[in-house]
């Protein structure tokens, strides 16, 4: 069955960019890129290390906007268009909620984050593992 709406969660890592490239190459359908901003007061967020505050929230949102803007540019280079979304919350939960709420029938995502250090890689790998285990649709993990 051909996909009609593919979701590509992006975290700014090279593997996420590879996932977007694969989705654009393999699927001739609606593609949405999603970045999830983890709340700064969450135990696993940057806020746990850097301290929460309005400037940190603004910085996190600006980073999310840059990530989806780069994805839009990357798609345009391939004569494609992507829809964009930014959500706040637990990454795996936000991805799964987006799938359920927006008629997504395929997820293509990177297996873990990029050059962020061992703990971050393990946590972001956990996001992919959780999405694979819980998604009601096919999930392709790019490694």
TrEMBL record:
Region called Disordered, residue ranges: 43-85
Ranges of Basic and acidic residues composition bias in the record: 54-84
Superkingdom, taxonomy of origin: Archaea
SUPFAM superfamilies associated with the record: Adenine nucleotide alpha hydrolases-like
Signal peptide range: none
UspA domain mapped to chain residues: 5-143
UniProt xrefs under PANTHER family: STRESS RESPONSE PROTEIN NHAX (PTHR46268), UNIVERSAL STRESS PROTEIN (PTHR46268:SF24)
UniProt record similarity statement: Belongs to the universal stress protein A family.
UniProt-recorded name of the protein: Universal stress protein
Organism: Halorubrum distributum
Source species taxonomy: Archaea, Methanobacteriati, Methanobacteriota, Stenosarchaea group, Halobacteria
């Amino acid at each position: 069955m051909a996909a009609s709406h593919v979701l590509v969660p992006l975290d700014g890592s090279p593997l996420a960019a590879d996932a977007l490239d694969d989705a654009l190459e393999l699927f001739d359908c609606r593609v949405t890129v999603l970045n999830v901003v983890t709340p700064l007061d969450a135990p696993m967020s940057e806020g746990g290390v850097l301290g929460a505050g309005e400037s940190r929230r603004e910085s996190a949102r600006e980073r999310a906007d840059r990530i989806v803007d780069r994805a839009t540019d990357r798609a345009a280079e391939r004569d494609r268009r992507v829809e964009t979304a930014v959500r706040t919350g637990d990454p795996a939960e936000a991805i799964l909620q987006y799938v359920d709420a927006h008629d997504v029938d395929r997820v293509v995502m990177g297996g873990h984050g990029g050059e962020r250090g061992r703990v971050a890689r393990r946590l972001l790998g956990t996001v992919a593992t959780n999405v694979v285990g819980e998604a009601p649709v096919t999930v392709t993990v790019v490694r």
